[in-house]
């Protein structure tokens, strides 16, 4: 009787333990799935917001005038003086709009104007356009090799929103066409929202959320685009396939995340449980 009772007790424990483990897996799966849905919804809302703000600048008369100035020159020449004149004009005429935005939320509006050939006309959150050999230069740099949304908007004349890689990494973007009064495609305007801010807002700073972290990785074959993510001391590469981009905490993820896990996670929701 004692032996039988012991065996029944053991099987009862094993069954209960199995059920609890299964329940935990279901809870983890549901939590991660719900969090992924929350992030996707936030991305969609943010891209709508970005597109809405960009659209506000697409028909302003001073913007149309600036593009008409640029088109009197050679827009294929990144150092064209007429494009530079248009760039200075936009900085001056839109400064009050940008100052009003930054004073209200304490951050700069990332407003970007593009020429129809997918050259950058002006990034209005910077004093100068881009870096060359470690020095800032003010020219209409060519972004056509990696900014497909800009090419699409200027080809189709339609509005575009979503996530796209740039030199700084992932960004949520809303891109609107800019047309002349007679309907000619002059270029496009874009608002960027940081992808980091979306991930950072996914968890609260208190309670159980304070112990949770999110980590963003990118396919390593895109590293030629994201020039700001090429420092492997900050953005290490895993198995020559994935690049660490950003984490919501300073947790050492290297003992938790490997290339095999990321490979599976790139195809479907993947959950692992590690004790300790």
TrEMBL record:
Occurrences of domain Double Cache (ranges): 110-210
InterPro entries: dCache_3, Sensor-like_sf
Family matches, as Pfam families: dCache_3
The protein, known as: Double Cache domain-containing protein
Organism: Candidatus Magnetoglobus multicellularis str. Araruama
Classification of source organism: Bacteria, Pseudomonadati, Thermodesulfobacteriota, Desulfobacteria, Desulfobacterales
């Amino acid at each position: 009787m004692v032996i039988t009772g012991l065996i029944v007790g053991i099987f009862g424990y094993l069954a209960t333990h199995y059920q609890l483990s299964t329940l935990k897996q279901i809870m983890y799966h549901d939590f991660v799935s719900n969090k992924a849905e929350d992030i996707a919804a936030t991305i969609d809302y943010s891209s709508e917001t970005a597109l809405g703000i960009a659209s506000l600048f697409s028909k302003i008369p001073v913007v149309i005038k600036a593009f008409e100035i640029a088109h009197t020159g050679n827009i294929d020449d990144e150092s064209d003086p007429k494009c530079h004149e248009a760039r200075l004009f936009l900085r001056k005429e839109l400064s009050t709009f940008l100052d009003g935005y930054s004073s209200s939320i304490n951050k700069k509006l990332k407003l970007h104007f593009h020429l129809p050939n997918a050259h950058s006309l002006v990034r209005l959150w910077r004093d100068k356009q881009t870096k060359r050999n470690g020095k800032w230069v003010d020219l209409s740099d060519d972004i056509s090799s990696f900014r497909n949304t800009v090419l699409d908007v200027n080809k189709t004349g339609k509005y575009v929103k979503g996530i796209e890689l740039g030199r700084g990494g992932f960004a949520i973007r809303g891109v609107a066409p800019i047309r002349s009064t007679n309907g000619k495609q002059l270029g496009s305007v874009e608002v960027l929202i940081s992808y980091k801010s979306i991930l950072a807002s996914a968890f609260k700073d208190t309670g159980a959320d304070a112990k949770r972290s999110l980590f963003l990785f990118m396919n390593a074959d895109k590293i030629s685009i994201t020039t700001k993510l090429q420092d492997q001391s900050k953005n290490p590469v895993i198995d020559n396939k994935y690049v660490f981009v950003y984490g919501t905490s300073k947790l050492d993820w290297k003992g938790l995340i490997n290339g095999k896990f990321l490979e599976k996670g790139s195809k479907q929701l993947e959950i692992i449980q590690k004790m300790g």
